[in-house]
Design brief:
- The protein is α/β, with parallel strands linked by helices and 209 residues long.
- It has a single domain, classed as Rossmann fold (3-Layer(aba) Sandwich).
- Helix 1 packs across helix 6 and helix 3 packs across helix 4.
- The mean pLDDT is 96.
């Protein structure tokens, strides 16, 4: 990975740098990723986005392909962290798959913190296939932004998981995996995304230097 592979926003001399990876099906410049990145940058943070190899290949070839195997995803995350000065200088995170893989390298690289926008606790409709084993022992300060009706893990689902004391979950009322609430809920997707950005920014700013 080269520095040209990153999308950078926010002041270069910011006190906080946040590195974000995309979800399984949408690239680093998807509307969701752009909104989150711009929102954090507006709070004075330096935000870096990158793509996993399979997504970069899709962009280059115009063909869909399955996500890379875990070793490739993990290596891509570690490359991105190293490119930005090492874990002690960055907060890692991302959308769904991106946040999940970040959670698997956060302790190893010594990240300052971890922010997950919609964690995929289990595949939709298959709550027995949990992706939580490593979360019980996670040491990195972590914030998970999760919709209360996310098919990858609802409030009721997550209440029964043995999560590390380092993890805090911020619930977005009525939100699905993209934080979109039901039309008659009185809430909006825009409002939930803005709430998630504000909570993430507050969390990053609270981390020890």
């Amino acid at each position: 990975m080269q520095r040209d592979d990153l999308i950078l926003e926010g002041p270069p001399d910011a006190a906080h740098t946040v590195v974000l990876a995309h979800g399984a099906g949408a690239p680093m410049d998807s509307p969701f990723m752009r909104r989150v990145s711009a929102g954090l940058a507006a709070r004075g943070m330096r935000v870096a986005r990158f793509e996993f190899p399979y997504m970069a290949k899709r962009r280059a070839e115009g063909k869909r392909g399955a996500p890379d195997r875990p070793p490739v995803l993990l290596a891509a995350w570690k490359d991105a962290v190293a490119l930005l000065g090492g874990g002690g200088k960055v907060v890692v995170g991302g959308k769904s798959l991106g946040g999940r893989i970040a959670s698997m390298i956060a302790d190893d690289v010594g990240a300052r913190g971890l922010v997950c926008f919609g964690y995929p606790f289990h595949p939709p409709g298959d709550p027995a296939r949990l992706r939580t084993a490593h979360l019980a022992a996670l040491r990195t300060p972590t914030l998970i932004l999760q919709g209360t009706r996310d098919a990858f893990g609802t409030r009721e689902d997550v209440a029964g998981y043995p999560l590390s004391a380092a993890i805090r979950v911020h619930w977005l009322e009525g939100g699905d995996h993209s934080f979109k609430p039901p039309p008659k809920s009185g809430r909006t997707e825009k409002g939930n995304v803005e709430e998630a950005i504000a909570a993430a920014a507050d969390f990053v700013e609270s981390l020890p230097g």
